[in-house]
Amino acid sequence: MEFGHRSNFVFVLERITTITLIAFALIFSTCSKDADSENDKKAVEVNTEKSDYYTEQYRNQFHFSPEANWMNDPNGMVYYDGEYHLFYQYYPDSTVWGPMHWAHAVSPDMVHWEHLPIALYPDSLGLIFSGSAVVDHQNTSGFGKDGKAPLIAIFTHHLMAGEKAGGNQYQYQSIAYSNDRGRSWTKYEGNPVVSNPGIKDFRDPKVIWHEESQKWVMVFAAYDKVRIYNSPDLKDWTFTSEFGIPGDKRLWECPDLFPMQVEGSDETKWVLITSIQKEGPNGGTATSYFVGDFDGKTFKGDHKKQYWADYGKDNYAMVTWSDVPSSDGRRLALGWMSNWQYAQIVPSEKWRSAMTLPRVLTLHKHGNDYRMRSMPVKELANIEDEKVEIPAKVFKGENLISKISKDHLYKLELTFKKPSSGDLGVRFSNDKGEYTDVKFSGVGNHYYIDRTKSGTISFNENFPGVHLGEIDYESSTVDMIIYLDHASVELFGDQGQCVMTEIVFPSTPYSNIEIIGGKENAELIKGTMTNLKRIW
Ligand code: FRU
Hints:
Layout: H1 9-20, H2 37-48, E1 69-80, E2 83-91, E3 101-107, E4 114-120, E5 127-135, E6 151-158, H3 160-164, E7 171-178, E8 186-187, E9 202-210, E10 215-222, E11 225-231, E12 238-244, E13 252-261, E14 268-276, E15 286-294, E16 299-301, E17 307-308, E18 316-320, E19 331-336, E20 351-352, E21 359-366, E22 369-376, E23 384-390, E24 393-395, E25 398-402, E26 410-417, E27 423-429, E28 435-441, E29 446-450, E30 466-469, E31 477-485, E32 488-493, E33 498-503, E34 512-517, E35 522-532
Parallel strand pairs: 1-20
Antiparallel strand pairs: 1-2, 2-3, 3-4, 5-6, 6-7, 7-8, 9-10, 10-11, 11-12, 13-14, 14-15, 15-16, 15-17, 18-19, 19-21, 21-22, 23-35, 24-35, 25-34, 26-31, 26-35, 27-28, 27-34, 28-29, 29-30, 31-32, 32-33
This protein binds beta-D-fructofuranose.
The site of beta-D-fructofuranose (FRU) has 12 residues, from strand 1, strand 5, strand 9 and strand 13.
């Protein structure tokens, strides 16, 4: 695939005017032309082939969402035979949470998705709650066929009747296998493989192969901590240890545990991700992590050092893909782009919620400690269209930089000189006076997203607000990568050190982008604006 990197603004405007009738004046003066007629043709074809599919109000255009009905956590993320699998919590009969299934989609690049039939249906052991999937390369389970490694899904069965009866043993871990690239699944007749010792919240298994001990490791949430189990064959599991914050009674969900090489060194540390049901950095649910060591049985980490993987309100249950080839070596993640505070009443009508953009996670030394960073995956270049340079200059007040794209889908890359006082950043707005600000505060030394006037906000009191992204590092610049879709904005600040994911519901997609300098003006060192293509 080839991508356009053209930057002649007049040319872009002319072409887009003809196609879309939406051209507008701009402030740019110096842009060089690098037109490639083959790319032009492709871009035109893509832009004119718009159908009714996935064009509803509030429908994100380059994020995964189900065609209809309710979705929550990503599940069973595994790479197998050239495909990234995404299963997800799904209720096919309504746009609010209900009896859970695992729905299914596959992608060659984590960006373009093909919907497949529902993979796992509720059964006599219960509903199908969150979990993971692995490739059983050595066929330890014996479920392989014709010399091919089976895919194994590990999930929580939730027995509604048990919950209603007032017991506390209605969640347990089960497995299913597939011999046809995830197209059909057989549940193991010996389910559940981990029974419940009497812990009410006992769910969301994530399984990894632990190379050193040649064993499978399962980590799952048990109310306010995680439990870790071992198995030789994915069927027989032995409890080994647990990890939690003493005295902290918040509910944990959807953990993940994996090794990461510290960037620029040979050191390996283990990251334990866990999603937290309340008191996220800006309220409600959020994804956190710890960094420590793991010997195959016990995670040793400082329970006082719990960090946020994302400061926005809308990245929950983020977990990583299993079996990404070692030749690739990336740790790839995806989260559910919502918050349980309001997920079931957001104003989309036909379906509910979308996933975050896929991200690559890296681990970095941070003083005497470590921090994880998240950046958008490079495959997102597959949806890049015209790219325009924004010349370096000092922006005073508000400056319209764009109103050009037919689909209103943007990626901005902006590097500013760090202000010591005053704010700077970007305002996305529409002609109805609705806007979302993505900014850096020089006084507070933090990022923030203001969605108080973002569009439809009144459906829940916890939705509108000014949400802060904390910074605990030094830098002389403010480096922003921002992805804007019809109903979301994602900020990757300072090479992924401060990430904020937030959903928004403007009554019409934002079409104006302004760079805003506060008291101190905004000194742009370099910038680009890229139009993005829809994936549906
Ligand atoms: C997290 C979660 C999981 C559970 C699933 C049920 O969002 O509550 O703990 O398995 O959703 O849909």
